[in-house]
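Fold sample X.
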Amino acid sequence: MIHEHVAAVDLGSNSFRLQVGRVVGNQIYPLDSLKEPVRLAAGLTADKWLDAAAQRRGLAALARFGERLRGFAPDAVRAVATNTLRVARNAAAFLAQAEAVLGFPIEVIAGREEARLIYLGVAHALPNQRIRHLVVDIGGGSTEFIIGRNIKPLLLESLYMGCVGYSQRFFPDGRITKRNLKEAELAARRELQTIVHAYRETGWDLAVGSSGTAKAICDLLEFNGFAAGTITWEGLERLRHRLISAGHAAKTGLAGMRPDRVPVLPGGVAIMSAVFKELGLEEMVYSEGALRLGVLYDLLGRYHHEDMREATVKRFIQRYEVDRAQAARVATTALELYQQLRPQEDIETSPAAQFLAWAARLHEVGVSVAHTSYHKHSAYILANADMPGFSRRDQALLARLVLAHRGKLERAQPLPREAPEWSLIFCLRIAALLHRARDAAPLPELQVRFGSKGFELAIDREWLVESPLTAAALEEEVAQWASVGIGFKLRALRPHA
């Protein structure tokens, strides 16, 4: 269902942001936005624990966002978390509280997925999409680099350097000297050297900055006469000299210096200077489009059946040379079984059914590594590969389903007995087992249900007699399900009179 109003929540390392938009055809028009300078990355300790103060700031911001989002449909809101919650060791505990406060699920997205969504937002805000753009987004904990044309990214990268982290690391007391600014720039240049060659080789026509750091620097250069509405190398040099001479961002006397930017400006300027030096930039324009707008357009794409996740699944099937006919057979049977278990769900729109279908189509990607224990290889690939459109939670779900589709069910632990994922695992396991022959022979009539003691499968008696290998495998399933405390009863269907 296409909603008139959609919303994106960005749990960034520096700020939390909410963007509400109105959908008109294929376009999104901004209606409302909220920003909270949470500085989440500032609460990340040396051993990667998110401290209590940062968590409180984050939860307070999300409570305010939650009030604004009351009445929104679940599929009209998408919340994403970036670098700090990618690396924080206690992220899961914080996210459980955060989701309760916000009222919507929160996806932790990988760095390249963040880069893809940033580019999608920037591309929709650029006047000339035909030329090749270099987009640089300096966030609180990471910096994303994208080269793309139209709405298609050509190169995507995310580097672990951001304005909050660098400001804390190199300017811990806020003091700015020629030496510590140079050290910060050199550290950023070292990070950049891993991508510079590929990016210069690909090339671009226009450099674009997005998000808070680029906007803050662009505004400071313009308000103080250092540049005329863009970020230039000369303007950056003048800003650097002013910061060094003042010794602290709060003492520069610069027009347009926002209080919330003072603690993170030195790190942001150091990274931007390094970007200009390593990539040989002379000028960069600023774009209002960023992660939030990209999230909204990605959400809109899902309504219009242009779901990036489906495109990713198709690419994986091609890349890993999956047996398409076998994958389709398993997917069809798995969905038929799931429909019997959940007759009240619309298979076409059910998110659970969608993930079951994706897992079935991808369950053999690991065969490209080795046939022995291929399900383990498949699970590893799905959990760790860059999968545009999928959050880390999405990938973890796919990996769990695929890992559990054969072999010992104990690997699916510690899922609680009542977890809905068991139904997905059951359908995938039975479908894969029944299609072990990898041929187009029709299956017999199947009847499944979930009763008080667990799963029940009824199957044609004569077919079982004629398929002793499958019958034995189904009997083994009884023991496997018992090992995780869930019943599985196999019944023979009598032939119709």
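Fold sample Y, listed below.
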Amino acid sequence: MIRVMVCGAYGKMGREVLKAVYNDGDLDLVGAMDVNSGFADIGELIGKGKTGVIVGNDLETVIHSTKPQVMVDFTNPDAVMPNIRCAIANGVCPVVGTTGLSVSNIEEVKQLCKEKQVSALIAPNFAIGAVLMMKMAQDAAKYLPHVEIIELHHDQKLDAPSGTALRTAELITKTRGSFRQGHPEEVEKLAGARGSDYEGIRIHSVRLPGYVAHQEVIFGGLGQTLTIRHDSISRESFMPGVVFACKKVINLDGLICGLEHILN
């Protein structure tokens, strides 16, 4: 049994992670943390009755009292780095689904893992279908280099573009390189009308109630278009990937970025 704790336990993703870890026979849900904690029993959050495991509001205290091997973090961009630092400092392996981390953040985590000899996994998306979408998009870019990305999320998401969109653009760029798309004299009548720009790839972010997490990658070629789309209909779609990551992370070497690297 792998001992797991969850950060962001009161959030929508946090509650799904609690249920997924609790229901898996190879994982032991030993602790949870949320800064808004009312010290509820986790069983009350996931409809399982009293479990004796209480949600704390101080990460270091929870780690010391529950001694987890793995910390799953679905919090927010402001909280995630302090949580990762605390976990690694205490020898706990982070599995991070919180997006909004910068390049410098990633480098810091990599260095901390090296110094403390702790492994970690950071993934922009834990849905297996989303990982396949990114891989297919990277392959398609070999033949259809003109591409734009549209990502659609719920209106409470804090960062834009999404981590999945940025990771998709990064993978495509590794295949096709960087170049400017569209007419060279193109003019935006409203700033941002053409979306953000990642190495010539336009990324468009939609934020509306009713969505969970969705992305389409549209390729254009002579007389044709190709659209690769993934839809997460509910947050349950991320849970098989999260559970899989919890089981694998303790045997990794240092920091791994992207679920695709452990699926193989």
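Sample Y note: The CA atoms of residues 161 and 205 lie 6 Å apart.
Also: The domain at 128-233 is CATH 3.30.360.10 (Dihydrodipicolinate Reductase; domain 2).
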